[in-house]
Amino acid sequence: SDTGTKPPESGIFGFMINISALLAVITMYIRYLLIEKQNESSHFVRSSCNIFSLCIGLMGCIGMGIVATFQELSVPSVHDIGALVAFGSGVVYITLQSIMSYKSCPQWNTYFVCHIRMAISVISCIAFIPMIVFASRISMTKIDWTPGEKDYTYHFVSAICEWTVAFGFIFFFLTFIRDFQ
């Protein structure tokens, strides 16, 4: 978010986040359809659980759109709510998908892939908690931080956790490659 606060970076940041959200929507919808099709013969998960997971994932994408639209320094409260929705919904989505993957074993997934997905989900969940805790302790919204400054440590730890969760989402989606073939 720090890179997307000033023009022209803010325009590029917003555009790229919106493209990422769109690609995530497409990926989640394809995953939803795939599970529905597999479920016709295997009945490993309730259709309502699959729909619920899709809705949670779509909420996360809406949160991404909010983050992209409302820059961190311009409207910090709206930006932060969008980030909370994006990251919170994303963590719930990948956790639900991990559980559904286990339920589809061994017919539709290998246990190795399920273990990888669950490991990514657990790491993301663990990183999400300190991300929220440390971000909530930051008393000022600013861009240029220097070590030793008030709240620097909170910002630093929160940023590391935020990147951990974000990369967790990317790696999790990469585990769908074999399923989508």
UniProtKB/TrEMBL annotation:
GO terms for cellular component: endomembrane system; lysosome. Keywords: Membrane, Transmembrane, Transmembrane helix. Residues 1-181 form the CWH43-like N-terminal domain. The chain crosses the membrane at residues 12-30, 51-71, 77-96, 108-134, 154-177. One of its GO terms (biological process) is regulation of autophagy. It is a multi-pass membrane protein. It comes from the Eukaryota. The keyword Disulfide bond does not apply. Belongs to the DRAM/TMEM150 family. This is DRAM1 protein.
